[in-house]
Amino acid sequence: MLEGLGALAGGRVRLWRFDGRGLRVAAGPDPGWSPTIPRGAGLVPTPAGSAWLEPVREPEGFWVEVALGSEAESRAAAERVTPVVAALLDAERQRGFIAEELASRYEEIDLLYAISEILGQTVRLEEATQTIVREVSSVVGARRASIMVFDEATGALRTVAARGFGLDHLPPVAVDDDCSVAARVYRERRTLVHDPTDPDETPSECDGRRGYRGDAYLSVPICYGAPGAPTRCVGVINLTDRIGGDRFTHGDRKLVTAIASQIGAAVENARLVERDLRQQRVRQELELAHDLQLKLLPSPAVLQGDAEVAARCYPADSVGGDFYTFTRLGRGRVGVMLGDVASHGFSAALVMALVMSAAGIHAAASVTPDETLSALLDSLSTELAETEMYFSVFYGVLDPLTGHLAYASAGHPYAFRVPRFGEPERLESTAPPLGLATAGSIQRRQVPWSVGHDLLVLWTDGLVDAQNDAGEAFGEQRLLAEVCARRGEPVEAVVEGVLAAADAFGARPVDDRTLLVLRI
User: Fold this and answer.
1) Which single residue of 274, 335, 378, 468 could bond 506 by disulfide (Cβ 3.0 to 4.6 Å)?
2) How many CB atoms lie within 10 A of CB 302?
3) Contact 222, 233 (CB under 8 A)
4) CA 258 vs CA 99, 268, 370: distances in Å
């Protein structure tokens, strides 16, 4: 281009640039020498003869050398050529800016695409955010960066990824911390950026607590808005200690804001996945607890040859507080126990497990039913007092040789002798529920028993208290009517008939349900 300008001017044209020490050739052939720098435009001596040096106003630091036949001709040509050179330099500078901007935009687009790939392929939040922190800090030139997410359990911001420092040194940040930039960004759901070069910005009294090595910081809220739901803040991304100039540009802010919106969806997805996995684990544990609890209940085969028994137990939750057990006591005698721990769920299930383990020991060691329940109360008194729980329980001993049923009932109202003919007989309570009863208050009773004909029918309140859609309870009378209608059938058929009648009634259980029928 300078050769063309020289041809048009009719002489030598060369471009010089000041490098801080002297003039160096910027365009044109290097003559091996450099002219002295004049105070302004003017004629200067050179080894090749006098030449006119004209300064370029914009951009600064450039000089145009023009050498023609005379000073006047050189000056006139320089005044014509210099604006053209200035325009060329400005165009070159603009082209450089555009190239740099395109490269920067390409880098940002590539980063956004890479983050989309990371979030699309990674389920673990910590793994994804650690990669994002590394990539983002590299693009915007931050030595230190972190991503914090809101922990609903603690009500604080927890750092899940960091670059430039270790996670071990970062305690959770309370969202109401007045001196935390991240907490403020989370609360106000708006970006905070500090530029130390801005004379209008005043330092905060909390700035000394931040512990940043640099002065500038950029903190952007991570938000997520589900379709049809309001947007909510789920975390914060922080950057500081910028490489180069200690300020973050408007472009940095736009880029990090775009990335934060992507992270918001990832944080929410990770939270939902974690919650789903946690719920799956809970369901699996509940199913296991349910299976284990049912395995504590004995099989009817335990009494095979001595008695005919059928039983069902359905917890209202995965586990419950209803229980039953039966024991061979020798010489044809059979011990039968059924109880109901107040409440249901895990607390009731724990007490039920304690009762089951103790009942087998005391039933075998005691002679009479009242002694068995007294020993049971004595062994469980501490646990019942600490948990403030109690349970009703019926325990009877059937002796086919004497034709009697001896029993003790600690507040359990649902125990009946159903004869082959006639009305059912309620086996009245002989003491308050265990946990409310005192030592020595448990009494024993005895009723006659028709071997091979009478039925012992025991159940818990969840079976008769269950209501249909009209709010009517299944009730004791319906249950006993179904038993009486089937009293000549096998006990398994009796149990199945009662449960089928309850289902047909439309009873919706809200408590544990247990039914036991025995014939000896």
Assistant:
1) 468
2) 14
3) yes
4) 23, 16, 75
The DSSP symbol for 402 reads T
What does the chain come to in residues? Answer: 520
What does the alpha-carbon distance between residue 179 and residue 218 come to, in Å, rounded to a whole number? 15
Q: Assess contact for 310 and 517: CB atoms under 8 A.
A: yes
Cβ contact 397:334 at 8 Å: yes
φ and ψ at 119, to 5 degrees? -70, -30
Q: How confident is the model over 163-206, as pLDDT tens digits?
A: 888 877 778 999 999 889 999 999 999 999 887 766 666 556 56
∠ at Cα 249 (245, 253), nearest 5°?
135
Phi-psi group of 150: left, alpha or beta (phi > 0 → left; psi -120 to 50 → alpha; rest → beta):
beta
At residue 231, the 3 state secondary structure works out as: coil
Q: Which two tokens stand for residue 201?
A: 């910005």
Domains of the chain listed by start with CATH number: 2-98 (no CATH), 122-274 (3.30.450.40), 297-519 (3.60.40.10)
Full strand arrangement of the beta sheet holding 308-314: 308-314, 513-519, 455-459, 415-418, 425-426
Residue 96 pLDDT > 60, yes or no? Answer: yes
Among 352, 515, 340, CA closest to 412: 340
Residue type, 43: L
The backbone torsions φ and ψ at residue 8, rounded to the nearest 5 degrees and listed phi first, read: -70, -35
The pLDDT of residue 59 is above 60: yes
SS3 state at 154: coil
Q: How far apart are the first and last CA of the chain?
A: 119
- Which pair of structure tokens corresponds to residue 277? 């996995």
